[in-house]
């Protein structure tokens, strides 16, 4: 049996990299709804905070690499991301980040698209709370069904 601090750290760290990992880890380790959701949201927001801060430097670095390689600016994937952004704005990117993208990926995409850091933080927060609640509740319910 893992000590409580290790369980909490596992949920938090998984959520910084892959959002879905937080609720699954929390329910599999027997954490209740509130700590699992709080740690999942905190993990995602930590990742968003860090990568939105270093994002501008990352954008400049990627642009230099692309120019040196003479790589095309747009790929099929980047075109789809831009379609979502044009149609739904930052809210659409934030909504899709926890389930399709990772917290890091969604933040980097928003930064590449020139969204201000405060808007990124605000939209990612509501998205993390929404999806954190849904996925934690779902993993708790499914976990209870599997154990009984």
Keywords, please?
148 residues, mainly alpha, 7 helices
* Total domains: 1
Structural class estimated from helices and strands: mainly alpha
Radius of gyration: 17 Å
Point out poorly predicted stretches: none
What's the total number of strands?
A: 0
Strand content: under 5%
> Quick one: biggest sheet?
none
Order of helices and strands: HHHHHHH
Mean pLDDT: 86
**Discrete helix count:** 7
Residues in helix, %: over 70%
Distance between the termini: 20 Å
What does the overall shape look like?
elongated
How are the SSEs ordered, and which strands pair?
Elements: H1 4-17, H2 21-28, H3 33-53, H4 55-69, H5 76-96, H6 103-112, H7 117-147
Q: Can you offer a commentary on this structure?
A:
- With 148 residues, the protein is mainly α.
- It has one domain (4-147).
- 81% of the residues lie in helices and 0% in strands.
- It is built from 7 helices and no strands.
- It has helices at residues 4-17, 21-28, 33-53, 55-69, 76-96, 103-112, 117-147.
- α1 runs antiparallel to α2, α3 (33-53) packs parallel to α6 (103-112) and α5 (76-96) crosses α7 (117-147).
- The longest helix has 31 residues, at 117-147.
- It is elongated.
- The model has no long low-confidence stretch (mean pLDDT 86).
